[in-house]
Amino acid sequence: MYLLYTILAALLCFLVLKWTKRRRYCMDVKRLDGKTVLITGGNSGIGKETAVALAMRGARVIIACRDEERAAKAVREIKARSHNMNVLHMDLDLANVRSVRDFCKSFLQREKRLDILINNAGMPSVLDWTDDHFSMCFGVNHLGHFLLTNLLLGRLQESAPSRVITLTCSLYKYQKLDFQDLNYNLLPFFTYCRSKLANIYFTQELARLTEGKGVTAYAVHPGYVQSNWTCHYSVLFRILMRVIMFMFFVSCELGAQTVVHCAVTDEVTQHNGGYFSDCRPAALRPFAEDAGVAKKLWEASERLVKLA
Protein backbone atom coordinates (compact mmCIF):
# COMPACT_ATOMS: atom_id res chain seq x y z
CA MET A 1 0.00 0.00 0.00
CA TYR A 2 2.88 2.39 0.84
CA LEU A 3 4.38 1.72 -2.60
CA LEU A 4 1.04 2.50 -4.25
CA TYR A 5 0.74 5.82 -2.41
CA THR A 6 4.30 6.67 -3.38
CA ILE A 7 3.57 5.97 -7.05
CA LEU A 8 0.35 7.99 -6.94
CA ALA A 9 2.14 10.91 -5.26
CA ALA A 10 4.90 10.82 -7.87
CA LEU A 11 2.32 10.72 -10.66
CA LEU A 12 0.46 13.67 -9.15
CA CYS A 13 3.71 15.68 -8.91
CA PHE A 14 4.51 14.85 -12.52
CA LEU A 15 1.07 16.00 -13.69
CA VAL A 16 1.42 19.24 -11.71
CA LEU A 17 4.78 19.85 -13.35
CA LYS A 18 3.27 19.17 -16.77
CA TRP A 19 0.49 21.66 -16.02
CA THR A 20 2.91 24.37 -14.94
CA LYS A 21 4.88 23.82 -18.16
CA ARG A 22 1.86 24.60 -20.32
CA ARG A 23 2.39 27.70 -22.42
CA ARG A 24 0.39 29.70 -24.92
CA TYR A 25 0.41 28.95 -28.63
CA CYS A 26 0.48 31.70 -31.24
CA MET A 27 -3.11 31.67 -32.55
CA ASP A 28 -2.59 34.22 -35.35
CA VAL A 29 -2.99 32.50 -38.75
CA LYS A 30 -1.51 35.35 -40.79
CA ARG A 31 0.34 34.30 -43.96
CA LEU A 32 3.84 35.48 -44.88
CA ASP A 33 3.82 34.87 -48.63
CA GLY A 34 6.38 37.08 -50.38
CA LYS A 35 8.21 37.80 -47.10
CA THR A 36 11.85 36.92 -46.40
CA VAL A 37 12.86 35.72 -42.94
CA LEU A 38 16.43 35.36 -41.69
CA ILE A 39 17.00 33.21 -38.59
CA THR A 40 20.42 32.83 -36.96
CA GLY A 41 21.03 29.39 -35.54
CA GLY A 42 18.02 28.02 -37.39
CA ASN A 43 19.47 24.53 -37.71
CA SER A 44 18.31 23.29 -34.30
CA GLY A 45 16.16 23.93 -31.25
CA ILE A 46 13.92 26.98 -31.11
CA GLY A 47 15.43 28.36 -34.31
CA LYS A 48 14.50 25.31 -36.34
CA GLU A 49 10.95 25.18 -34.93
CA THR A 50 10.55 28.88 -35.71
CA ALA A 51 11.78 28.24 -39.25
CA VAL A 52 9.24 25.46 -39.72
CA ALA A 53 6.37 27.60 -38.38
CA LEU A 54 7.19 30.59 -40.60
CA ALA A 55 7.90 28.45 -43.68
CA MET A 56 4.45 26.87 -43.21
CA ARG A 57 3.03 30.39 -43.55
CA GLY A 58 4.66 30.77 -46.95
CA ALA A 59 7.76 32.79 -46.05
CA ARG A 60 11.13 32.48 -47.77
CA VAL A 61 13.26 31.27 -44.85
CA ILE A 62 17.04 31.56 -44.63
CA ILE A 63 18.81 29.88 -41.74
CA ALA A 64 22.25 31.25 -40.92
CA CYS A 65 24.70 29.02 -39.03
CA ARG A 66 28.28 27.83 -39.13
CA ASP A 67 27.89 24.03 -39.37
CA GLU A 68 27.17 23.36 -43.04
CA GLU A 69 26.39 19.65 -42.62
CA ARG A 70 23.87 20.21 -39.81
CA ALA A 71 22.39 23.16 -41.70
CA ALA A 72 21.84 21.08 -44.85
CA LYS A 73 20.10 18.39 -42.79
CA ALA A 74 17.93 21.04 -41.09
CA VAL A 75 16.96 22.59 -44.43
CA ARG A 76 15.75 19.21 -45.67
CA GLU A 77 13.71 18.70 -42.49
CA ILE A 78 12.19 22.20 -42.59
CA LYS A 79 11.19 21.72 -46.23
CA ALA A 80 9.63 18.33 -45.51
CA ARG A 81 7.68 19.51 -42.46
CA SER A 82 6.51 22.82 -43.91
CA HIS A 83 5.97 21.68 -47.53
CA ASN A 84 7.78 24.86 -48.53
CA MET A 85 10.77 24.48 -50.86
CA ASN A 86 11.81 28.12 -50.42
CA VAL A 87 14.19 27.37 -47.53
CA LEU A 88 17.97 27.72 -47.70
CA HIS A 89 21.13 28.01 -45.64
CA MET A 90 23.89 30.62 -45.56
CA ASP A 91 27.20 30.34 -43.67
CA LEU A 92 27.56 32.57 -40.61
CA ASP A 93 29.84 32.39 -37.58
CA LEU A 94 28.70 34.96 -35.02
CA ALA A 95 31.91 34.40 -33.05
CA ASN A 96 33.90 36.00 -35.86
CA VAL A 97 33.41 39.65 -36.86
CA ARG A 98 34.83 39.06 -40.35
CA SER A 99 32.36 36.22 -40.91
CA VAL A 100 29.47 38.49 -39.93
CA ARG A 101 30.65 41.17 -42.35
CA ASP A 102 31.16 38.66 -45.17
CA PHE A 103 27.75 37.15 -44.54
CA CYS A 104 26.01 40.53 -44.70
CA LYS A 105 27.82 41.45 -47.91
CA SER A 106 26.72 38.18 -49.51
CA PHE A 107 23.17 38.49 -48.19
CA LEU A 108 22.73 42.02 -49.51
CA GLN A 109 23.97 40.93 -52.93
CA ARG A 110 21.62 37.94 -53.10
CA GLU A 111 18.48 39.04 -51.27
CA LYS A 112 16.35 42.02 -52.24
CA ARG A 113 14.12 41.81 -49.15
CA LEU A 114 14.45 41.26 -45.43
CA ASP A 115 11.12 41.44 -43.64
CA ILE A 116 11.89 39.61 -40.40
CA LEU A 117 15.29 39.18 -38.75
CA ILE A 118 15.33 36.72 -35.86
CA ASN A 119 18.48 36.89 -33.71
CA ASN A 120 18.07 33.42 -32.27
CA ALA A 121 21.55 31.85 -32.08
CA GLY A 122 23.18 31.86 -28.69
CA MET A 123 25.92 30.41 -26.56
CA PRO A 124 25.31 29.03 -23.07
CA SER A 125 27.46 29.91 -20.08
CA VAL A 126 30.82 28.59 -21.30
CA LEU A 127 34.28 29.84 -20.36
CA ASP A 128 35.60 30.52 -23.85
CA TRP A 129 36.57 33.33 -26.22
CA THR A 130 35.61 34.35 -29.76
CA ASP A 131 38.09 34.74 -32.60
CA ASP A 132 38.12 38.48 -31.85
CA HIS A 133 38.91 37.99 -28.14
CA PHE A 134 35.44 38.70 -26.78
CA SER A 135 33.96 36.40 -24.16
CA MET A 136 31.95 33.79 -26.07
CA CYS A 137 28.59 34.65 -24.48
CA PHE A 138 28.91 38.41 -24.92
CA GLY A 139 30.55 38.11 -28.34
CA VAL A 140 27.98 35.76 -29.87
CA ASN A 141 24.80 36.57 -27.96
CA HIS A 142 25.17 40.34 -28.18
CA LEU A 143 28.01 41.70 -30.33
CA GLY A 144 27.57 39.28 -33.24
CA HIS A 145 23.87 40.05 -33.50
CA PHE A 146 24.48 43.76 -32.91
CA LEU A 147 26.80 43.94 -35.92
CA LEU A 148 24.58 41.70 -38.06
CA THR A 149 21.49 43.81 -37.41
CA ASN A 150 23.26 47.08 -38.08
CA LEU A 151 24.76 45.89 -41.36
CA LEU A 152 21.33 44.67 -42.53
CA LEU A 153 19.37 47.63 -41.19
CA GLY A 154 19.21 49.38 -44.57
CA ARG A 155 17.57 46.33 -46.16
CA LEU A 156 15.13 46.07 -43.27
CA GLN A 157 14.12 49.72 -43.78
CA GLU A 158 13.73 49.18 -47.53
CA SER A 159 11.41 46.24 -46.80
CA ALA A 160 9.35 48.11 -44.18
CA PRO A 161 7.26 47.34 -42.27
CA SER A 162 9.85 44.91 -40.93
CA ARG A 163 10.74 43.42 -37.57
CA VAL A 164 13.82 42.45 -35.55
CA ILE A 165 13.26 39.80 -32.89
CA THR A 166 16.07 39.02 -30.45
CA LEU A 167 15.93 36.09 -28.07
CA THR A 168 16.83 36.85 -24.49
CA CYS A 169 16.18 35.12 -21.16
CA SER A 170 14.60 35.99 -17.82
CA LEU A 171 17.99 35.28 -16.23
CA TYR A 172 18.92 38.85 -17.20
CA LYS A 173 17.58 39.91 -13.77
CA TYR A 174 20.54 38.37 -11.93
CA GLN A 175 23.19 40.73 -13.31
CA LYS A 176 23.85 44.33 -14.31
CA LEU A 177 26.30 45.58 -16.93
CA ASP A 178 29.75 46.72 -15.89
CA PHE A 179 31.06 49.12 -18.52
CA GLN A 180 34.54 48.79 -17.05
CA ASP A 181 34.46 45.11 -18.04
CA LEU A 182 31.76 44.30 -20.60
CA ASN A 183 33.87 41.32 -21.60
CA TYR A 184 33.49 39.76 -18.14
CA ASN A 185 34.26 36.03 -18.35
CA LEU A 186 35.18 34.86 -14.85
CA LEU A 187 31.89 33.23 -13.87
CA PRO A 188 30.23 31.80 -17.01
CA PHE A 189 26.69 31.87 -15.61
CA PHE A 190 26.90 35.58 -14.81
CA THR A 191 28.47 36.27 -18.21
CA TYR A 192 25.46 34.62 -19.81
CA CYS A 193 23.06 36.70 -17.69
CA ARG A 194 24.83 39.89 -18.75
CA SER A 195 24.64 38.92 -22.42
CA LYS A 196 20.89 38.40 -22.10
CA LEU A 197 20.50 41.78 -20.40
CA ALA A 198 22.48 43.29 -23.29
CA ASN A 199 19.93 41.75 -25.70
CA ILE A 200 17.17 43.66 -23.93
CA TYR A 201 19.01 46.99 -23.95
CA PHE A 202 19.91 46.44 -27.62
CA THR A 203 16.24 45.91 -28.50
CA GLN A 204 15.17 49.07 -26.68
CA GLU A 205 17.81 51.28 -28.31
CA LEU A 206 17.17 49.76 -31.75
CA ALA A 207 13.47 50.58 -31.37
CA ARG A 208 14.34 54.15 -30.40
CA LEU A 209 16.76 54.69 -33.29
CA THR A 210 14.42 53.24 -35.93
CA GLU A 211 11.22 54.86 -34.67
CA GLY A 212 9.20 56.13 -37.62
CA LYS A 213 11.40 54.24 -40.13
CA GLY A 214 9.21 51.16 -40.46
CA VAL A 215 11.33 48.81 -38.35
CA THR A 216 10.12 47.53 -34.98
CA ALA A 217 12.08 45.47 -32.44
CA TYR A 218 11.14 42.95 -29.77
CA ALA A 219 13.03 40.98 -27.11
CA VAL A 220 11.63 37.50 -26.45
CA HIS A 221 12.06 35.18 -23.49
CA PRO A 222 11.02 31.79 -24.97
CA GLY A 223 10.85 30.06 -21.61
CA TYR A 224 13.22 27.32 -20.43
CA VAL A 225 13.41 24.98 -23.37
CA GLN A 226 14.54 21.41 -23.97
CA SER A 227 17.16 22.40 -26.54
CA ASN A 228 20.63 21.00 -27.23
CA TRP A 229 22.60 23.69 -25.37
CA THR A 230 24.06 21.01 -23.09
CA CYS A 231 26.25 19.73 -25.97
CA HIS A 232 28.97 22.12 -24.75
CA TYR A 233 29.31 20.27 -21.42
CA SER A 234 30.39 16.90 -20.05
CA VAL A 235 28.41 13.68 -20.54
CA LEU A 236 27.47 13.49 -16.84
CA PHE A 237 26.16 17.06 -16.87
CA ARG A 238 24.19 16.38 -20.06
CA ILE A 239 22.51 13.33 -18.50
CA LEU A 240 21.60 15.27 -15.36
CA MET A 241 20.22 18.20 -17.35
CA ARG A 242 18.18 15.91 -19.61
CA VAL A 243 16.31 14.66 -16.55
CA ILE A 244 15.78 18.20 -15.24
CA MET A 245 14.69 19.50 -18.65
CA PHE A 246 12.21 16.65 -19.05
CA MET A 247 10.62 17.54 -15.73
CA PHE A 248 10.66 21.33 -15.85
CA PHE A 249 11.39 22.62 -19.36
CA VAL A 250 9.10 23.00 -22.39
CA SER A 251 9.54 21.63 -25.89
CA CYS A 252 11.29 23.60 -28.63
CA GLU A 253 7.96 23.87 -30.45
CA LEU A 254 6.39 25.58 -27.44
CA GLY A 255 9.48 27.72 -26.93
CA ALA A 256 9.17 29.03 -30.48
CA GLN A 257 5.59 30.24 -30.04
CA THR A 258 6.40 33.69 -28.61
CA VAL A 259 8.97 34.23 -31.37
CA VAL A 260 6.34 33.37 -34.00
CA HIS A 261 3.83 35.58 -32.21
CA CYS A 262 6.17 38.59 -32.41
CA ALA A 263 6.94 37.79 -36.05
CA VAL A 264 3.36 37.71 -37.31
CA THR A 265 0.92 39.38 -34.93
CA ASP A 266 -0.08 42.98 -35.69
CA GLU A 267 -0.85 43.88 -32.08
CA VAL A 268 2.82 43.60 -31.02
CA THR A 269 3.64 46.76 -32.96
CA GLN A 270 2.03 48.69 -30.10
CA HIS A 271 4.93 47.50 -27.91
CA ASN A 272 7.93 48.48 -30.02
CA GLY A 273 11.10 47.77 -28.04
CA GLY A 274 9.13 45.59 -25.64
CA TYR A 275 9.92 42.38 -23.81
CA PHE A 276 7.66 39.39 -24.48
CA SER A 277 7.10 36.07 -22.77
CA ASP A 278 4.39 33.46 -23.27
CA CYS A 279 2.94 35.33 -26.31
CA ARG A 280 2.30 38.56 -24.41
CA PRO A 281 4.16 41.62 -23.12
CA ALA A 282 5.96 41.02 -19.84
CA ALA A 283 7.30 43.33 -17.15
CA LEU A 284 11.02 44.03 -16.79
CA ARG A 285 13.01 44.87 -13.70
CA PRO A 286 13.37 48.70 -13.49
CA PHE A 287 17.15 48.61 -14.09
CA ALA A 288 16.53 46.82 -17.42
CA GLU A 289 14.53 49.78 -18.72
CA ASP A 290 17.24 52.41 -18.33
CA ALA A 291 17.41 54.28 -21.66
CA GLY A 292 20.72 55.86 -20.68
CA VAL A 293 22.35 52.46 -20.17
CA ALA A 294 20.86 51.18 -23.45
CA LYS A 295 22.36 54.13 -25.34
CA LYS A 296 25.73 53.73 -23.62
CA LEU A 297 25.82 50.00 -24.48
CA TRP A 298 24.98 50.77 -28.12
CA GLU A 299 27.86 53.26 -28.38
CA ALA A 300 30.28 50.87 -26.64
CA SER A 301 29.22 48.04 -28.97
CA GLU A 302 29.85 50.24 -32.02
CA ARG A 303 33.42 50.79 -30.82
CA LEU A 304 34.03 47.13 -30.03
CA VAL A 305 32.97 45.86 -33.48
CA LYS A 306 34.43 48.94 -35.23
CA LEU A 307 31.11 49.93 -36.75
CA ALA A 308 31.52 53.22 -38.61
Descriptive notes:
The chain is of the alpha/beta class and 308 residues long. The protein has a single domain (31-304), classed as 3-Layer(aba) Sandwich (Rossmann fold). The chain has ten helices and eight strands. The chain has an eight-stranded mixed sheet with strand order 3-2-1-4-5-6-7-8, sandwiched between helices. Helix 2 (45-56) runs parallel beside helix 3 (68-82), helix 4 packs parallel to helix 5 and helix 6 (188-209) crosses helix 10 (291-304). The longest helix has 23 residues, at 136-158. It is globular.
User: How many domains is the backbone divided into?
Assistant: 1
Overall mean pLDDT stands at 88
Second rung of CATH, namely the architecture: 3-Layer(aba) Sandwich
Structural shape: globular
What share of residues are in beta strands?
Answer: 5-15%
| CATH top level assignment | Alpha Beta
User: What is the end-to-end distance?
Assistant: 73 Å
Based on secondary structure, the structural category is alpha/beta
Q: What level of helicity do the residues show?
A: 40-55%
Q: Looking at CATH, which topology would you report? A: Rossmann fold
Q: Summarize the main sheet.
A: 8 strands, mixed
In terms of quaternary structure, the protein is: single chain
CATH homology superfamily name: NAD(P)-binding Rossmann-like Domain
Rg computed from alpha carbons, rounded to a whole number of angstroms: 19 Å
Which series of helices and strands comes N to C?
HEHEHEHEHEHEHHHEEH
Neighbour order of strands in the largest sheet: 3-2-1-4-5-6-7-8
Strand segment tally: 8
